[in-house]
Amino acid sequence: MKFQVMIKILFTLLKRRKVSAAALAAENGVSERSIRRYLDELTICGIPIDIIRGRYGGICLPDTFRLPENFFTKEEYAAAVNALGAFYEQMRDEAAAGALEKLQSQQKSEQKNLTLSGNVLVDSGTWGDVYDFSEKLRVCERATEENDCLDLLYIDRGGAESRRIVEPHLLVYKQNVWYVYAFCRKRQDFRLFRVARIKSARVTGEKFEKRAFDRESIPLKFTFEKTELTDVRFSVTKKALPDLEEWLGIDHIKISGEEILAEATLPAGEVLLSKILSFGNDLRVLSPSMLADEVKARAEKICRQYDSK
């Protein structure tokens, strides 16, 4: 009985995405206390259930959630589809019908990891992506096209978690990072939301009208707003050249015989230091000397960390 109720709760959430504890209790003939206990167990199993308090709240499953690719084997998948189909024929349970539809549509879209926009084809997946990032980007893209308000659970750089109702107007791709440019109702202003920092996204069911905005005013230079810029000069090995070209662009690189030099103006700080260290001994900082000293000090610190073991 317990596991049957838990599966039915999951199917109901897959179909409706938001439902109240009272409705789940009534549909399954158990108490709300039992429902909350089952929800806790589903959460432990890895289902990202979100409970929203307040007048428009409820028990939610983000639109970014889908069953993992390897959740079923091919045989298990076929058996599950057949079982759900037979169950629906006998009981006419709409939750089962919704779950069946989602399982079937998931199989059709498993290979659709590419975002197509006009004549531009972009693979939105990341290395090791198990659809999490791709699904978030797909939900944001669809909401932008269809003028759907999104309920975002967002985590900022400081680790603070907040819930935002936003009106997505534009997808922004900058320095290999995806952002959503959206009007934030909490801040009553446009904001850039980094897709990778969206913990969950759910279409609220409310439509919005696109607001007028100037594309020139989009803060695409946000990376440098509060960061000091520094002129750097590197010497790199031939082995590191491809990675350096992808980082700085070929216009910043000069090849003279066996010598490969690069010059660029970059934001100083931890990000630059980490990037330089990622090249190992294939990149040497020629200037400024202060940056070279920082790299040397950090490398020595790393060595001491391993020497102590």
TrEMBL record:
UniProt-listed SUPFAM superfamilies: Winged helix' DNA-binding domain
Query: What residues does the WCX domain cover?
Result: 230-302
Report the protein name in the record. Answer: YafY family transcriptional regulator
Highest lineage ranks of the organism? Bacteria, Bacillati, Bacillota, Clostridia, Christensenellales
Domain (WYL): residue spans on this chain:
136-203
A Pfam entry, by short name: HTH_11
Residue ranges of every copy of the Helix-turn-helix type domain listed in the record: 8-57
